[in-house]
Write a structure and sequence with these properties.
The chain is an alpha+beta fold and 158 residues long. The chain has 4 helices and 5 strands. Strands 1, 2, 3, 4 and 5 form a 5-stranded antiparallel sheet that branches.
């Protein structure tokens, strides 16, 4: 029988199985969700009456029924120990969208902003630990805080 460069139809199922098994054994790492988008960390006041219509939330999170901030893809937060402020990470598509979304907060004395590449980790942690005892910046940035714009607050947190 002459040598054929094509796979025999009888061998095709076995070859497919080998390819699929290789993909399962050596999965490709997905993109790191913390490596895309433009991010900033903030200390902002908490707002809201604590009702289902007006839940307690950082000032940068829209109330139920309000449109999300244009260009913002994620808002995560941890409430401070006294409940008056929150430590927030805002992620936008790009720098321009982030600047536009946060423009209304630019001149507020009760908002502090820490940008990647401009703020030092020690400076950020010192500020945040003054608001939340035992705050761990690495845990917050890599594992996330409580708040997400697409979910309600956990039970008992309103």
């Amino acid at each position: 029988m002459p040598h054929s460069p094509h796979l025999s139809p009888r061998l095709l199922p076995g070859a497919m199985l080998v390819v699929m098994a290789t993909g399962l054994a050596f999965p490709q790492a997905g993109p790191n969700p913390f490596s895309w988008g433009e991010r900033t960390l903030l200390v902002v006041p908490m707002v809201g009456a604590g009702t289902s219509e007006d839940p307690r939330r950082p000032i940068v999170m829209p109330a139920p029924g309000q449109a999300p901030l244009a260009g913002v893809v994620s808002i995560r937060f941890e409430e401070s120990d006294d409940g008056k402020t929150a430590i927030v990470e805002v992620v936008a598509r790009d720098r321009k969208a982030l600047q536009a979304a946060l423009q209304p907060l630019a001149n507020r004395a009760d908002v502090k902003r820490f940008d990647r590449g401009r703020s030092q980790k020690e400076e950020i942690e010192a500020e945040f630990r003054g608001k939340k005892q035992g705050f761990d910046l690495d845990r917050f940035v890599h594992q996330g805080g409580e708040g997400r714009p697409d979910r309600a607050a956990p039970p008992g947190r309103n």
